[in-house]
Amino acid sequence: MDALRGPLASSFARQILTTCAPFSSKPANELAVLDVGCGYGHTALALARQCKSVVGTEPNLPLWRSACALQQDAGQENLEFRHTGIYELDGSEQFDLIVLDNVLEHLPDQPLALRIISDCLAPAGAAYILVPNRLWPLEVHYGLPFLSYLPLSWANRYLRLSGRGTDYTDASYMPTYWRLNDLLMARRELSIQYVLPADIRLAAGGSAWHYRLGVRAIRRWPWLWAISKALLVVVRKRVH
Q1: Among 3, 56, 81, 184, which one is most buried in terms of CB atoms within 10 A?
Q2: Helix 110-120 to helix 177-185 angle, to the nearest 10 degrees?
Q3: Which residue would you say has higher pLDDT here, 210 or 173?
Q4: Among candidate residues 33, 21, 145, 189, the one with its CA nearest the CA of residue 100
């Protein structure tokens, strides 16, 4: 995964910033950014090269150590990696942009996670939330058909029989479109907008004909979000 995401990090960062730009009250070079579940840190590093400051949080110790090594090698002084999870954030720091890139599906208490995200957003701040859709037939983490449709005990058996893993729990919290709506609309201080990637060319697989066809279909029929492969939402903190 490190070798896969590293070369794409610059494109991921540009996609995040370009997609969120219409919802942001500040230009990119003035943004204080929080990258939740930053993994190896490549996207956080790419964001730090364009933004005022970036904090990346990562609860997995080996991943956090890799991210710290990446920061030291790059010498990027406006970038900090912290060995912590989302549930340890307390809202004492506020950020203009918060990124959850394929993270929400790993969080068992999503109402709490979104409350914390809201607490950590500065007024008029935006959050970029990209999460796989539970209803996509081919499960995105293990590539097994209908894995996400199954009760957890059955999913674990299926995973073990496939030889691709032993425990599906960590990736089993993918929401449906309707579940994500309910979670977000419960936060009345937030406005939500489903968005397509601002630059399709920067998306993973964006050059594929079926990807471009899917994007055109969602533009014409927004109800297709309900069965799309992934759900992409920009959340904005209302100013009272």
Answers
A1: 56
A2: 50
A3: 173
A4: 33
- CA 211, CA 197: separation in Å to the nearest integer? 11
Of the CA atoms within 13 Å of residue 68, those in its CB half-sphere come to 12
Q: What is the pTM of this model?
A: 0.93
> Which structure tokens are listed for 178?
């309707």
Tens of pLDDT, residue by residue over 144-202, are 999 999 999 999 999 999 999 999 999 999 999 999 999 999 999 999 999 999 887 77
Beta strands at 95-101 and 32-36: parallel, antiparallel or unpaired = parallel
Residue ranges and CATH numbers for the domains of the chain are 2-134+174-237 (3.40.50.150), 139-172 (no CATH)
- Residue count of the chain, please give it: 240
Q: Which residues contact 92 (CB under 8 A, 6 or more apart)?
A: none
Q: Beta strands 95-101 and 121-132: pairing type?
A: parallel
Give CA–CA dist 39/41, Å, rounded.
5
**Tokens 């919802």 found at:** 23
Contact of 183 with 114, CB cutoff 8 Å: yes
Q: How would residue 83 be classed by pLDDT, with cut points 50, 70 and 90?
A: very high
Tokens of 140: 């995105």
Mean pLDDT, range 23-48, rounded to an integer: 96
Helix (H, G, I), strand (E, B) or coil at 100: strand
Instruction: State the DSSP H helix or E strand holding residue 3, giving kind and residue range, or none if neither.
Output: helix 2-5
